[in-house]
Structures are given as C-alpha cells and as structure tokens.
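Sample entry (119 residues):
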Amino acid sequence: MLVALDHVQLAAPPGSEDALRSYYVDVLGMTEVAKPPVLAARGGCWFEGGPVRIHLGIDPAFHPATKAHPGLQVHDIASYATRLTTHGASVTWDDNLPGHLRFYSEDPVGNRLEFLQPR
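Predicted structure, serialized as tokens:
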C-alpha cells in the first residue's frame, strides 16, 4: 500500500549543479541536503522545503521535462510568483484548473514546474 510520495526526481545535464543550487535555494527558498556519499559521486543535488523533496540527477543524455512536471502547492501564490520574477525566472499563469490559481515556470535547465494554490 502506498503511504506518501517521498520525492520527485528530475534530470539535469552534467555541470549544472551550481545553477540548480542558485535556483532551488535562492529563488524557490529550498534547502540543499547532503546526498549519501555513494550517491554524491554521481553528481546532482537534493533539495527540501517543508514536506517537499526534489532530487536533481545528472543525465549525460539530458533533455528537459517540458510536459512532465511536479506540481508544487504554495501559500500566497501571487507573492511567490513575484519572488520568482524578481529573481529573473519566468512565470506563465494558467487558469485552466478549476478551483486553483496556478502558474508554470522552468528551472535553469528547462524542467517545467507547476505552482498552485487552491482557491
């Protein structure tokens, strides 16, 4: 029986860790957590913010996830969107999900992220 979602993993190209750290920590407000040494040797980064965990794994054949994406629930979505745009991240509002405010953005390697707040 499933009991929870532990994390979401997205792919990233080799050498992108510094850009990912800047985005996930400085822009999104998450905290980087240390990977176990055996996994750290593979590269990539792990981030947490509250109950949300996102892992970025290095893929030499990287292609950004432009359709598949994590949906991240936020409080005060308008302020959060302003935070992203202030840091130079794109924000594309979408009103097609009934009962929710939501927008999309991309991380620095082009992975799509959805941010939503129930009305």
